[in-house]
Inverse folding.
């Protein structure tokens, strides 16, 4: 049983509870400075997936909770003045980084369905303003399947290890298409499957909250983006990151790996995936 066949509201509630706990505990689900989707401290995880030390140093305290599986702000090649939407913005990590890139004439909107995460992110706004002199970010409560954003108003959509958690991923892609301006683009980092998960792993709540059980096959990700109407779809697998994020003592991933067939590594089943796509102009 996967998150695609489980009752959607049950899936959302499990994810909301799991990430609410992460927000309340401070930096992680597994202890200070550790990562829910990785092993090591939050800064090391972010550095491993390509975040710049300067960007990380400028973040408000606690915004980086080590929940990354890629660097969508780099893929997006953000430009000054753009309107950016972050799906599943958590404590504001990518929102605050994107805010500096789009500058005073740009705007970054974070959407998250977990009230505890939203509260954490909003508390970080004051520190962001003080450090950057910018007042260009906001956070909205909402589900990524039903975005609280008007049609054709966003230049770029980013998301970091979140879409895999949705029980209706095609609807997420349709919503992204709806809110993007014609010619707008998507830059997503996520986890995707190289092969189907063993049933006992797919059923684990730990795997769901840890960005694994909800993932779909790489080819399914491409199909959903295309079915939603996107063009110029590019997918880049980064299998080495999965080895990095599971190469440690993270208790969540240790539980998952204990359920794998003998001789199987997580990287045999899962890859970090960068996805870029464009909404047609016509």
């Amino acid at each position: 049983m996967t998150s695609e066949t489980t009752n959607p509201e049950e899936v959302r509630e499990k994810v909301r509870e799991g990430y609410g706990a992460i927000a309340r505990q401070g930096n992680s689900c597994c202890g200070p400075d550790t990562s829910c989707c990785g092993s090591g401290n939050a800064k090391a995880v972010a550095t491993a997936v390509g975040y710049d030390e300067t960007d990380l140093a400028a973040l408000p305290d606690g915004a980086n909770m080590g929940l990354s599986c890629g660097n969508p702000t780099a893929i997006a090649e953000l430009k000054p003045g753009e309107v950016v939407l972050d799906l599943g913005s958590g404590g504001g990590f990518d929102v605050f980084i994107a805010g500096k890139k789009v500058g005073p004439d740009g705007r970054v909107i974070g959407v998250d369905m977990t009230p505890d995460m939203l509260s954490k992110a909003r508390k970080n706004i004051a520190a962001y303003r003080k450090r950057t002199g910018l007042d260009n970010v906001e956070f909205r409560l909402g589900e990524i399947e039903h975005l609280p954003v008007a049609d054709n108003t966003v230049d770029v959509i980013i998301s970091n290890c979140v879409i895999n958690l949705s029980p209706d991923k095609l609807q997420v892609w349709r919503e992204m298409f709806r809110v993007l301006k014609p010619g707008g683009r998507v830059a997503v980092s996520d986890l995707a499957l190289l092969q189907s998960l063993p049933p006992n792993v797919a059923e684990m709540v730990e795997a769901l909250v840890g960005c694994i059980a909800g993932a779909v096959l790489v080819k399914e990700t491409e199909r959903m983006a295309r079915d939603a109407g996107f063009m110029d779809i590019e997918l880049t697998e980064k299998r080495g990151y999965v080895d990095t994020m599971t190469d440690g003592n993270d208790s969540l991933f240790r539980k998952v790996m204990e359920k794998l067939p003998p001789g199987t590594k997580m990287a045999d089943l899962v890859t970090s995936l960068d996805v870029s796509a464009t909404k047609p102009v016509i």
Remarks:
- The chain has one domain: 8-278.
- Residues 8-278 form a domain with the Rossmann fold fold (CATH 3.40.50.150).
- The beta strands are 83-87, 107-112, 137-141, 154-160, 180-193, 231-238, 270-278.
